[in-house]
Amino acid sequence: MPIDTLGYQAPARPEIWVAAIGIPQTLREGEQYTIEIVAGSSEAATARLTLGDGAAQLAAQDVQLTPGENRLTFRARAGQPGILRLSASLDGGPDTFPQNNHGAATALVAPQPRVLLVESQPGTSPPRRSPPPRCRHGSRTWRRSRASCCSTCRPAT
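The structure corresponding to this sequence follows.
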């Protein structure tokens, strides 16, 4: 019994998507970090990229996508300690499936470290720097290179 076959290729549909969002897994409070968004497109397209952290919008801009992977980078600063949730979305076209136009990433934001210095024997730690001497008025810092801090007084001792 002869069997005939015919190759079938689905018609190409235009598509844009968010492939990935790259951020560090852990951050310190106030640390500046880089966000890398990988957006894909099956053909040249224009889209509106929106980046947010749940509480605020970090960026919103129009982007030109070329066929294949497009890498977009942004800089941000970590906020309060806790879980940072970033989301990115593309809105534009031509696009067939809007369900894949969103991506998300999370990071742990740790508090700033605290340091406690303990010396095993009293007096063995390095000396602390004292603040610079102030004039008698207390309003200006006296500099050793000058004879006085202002025309009316000499440095306090």
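Residues 44 and 66 are 5 Å apart (CA to CA).
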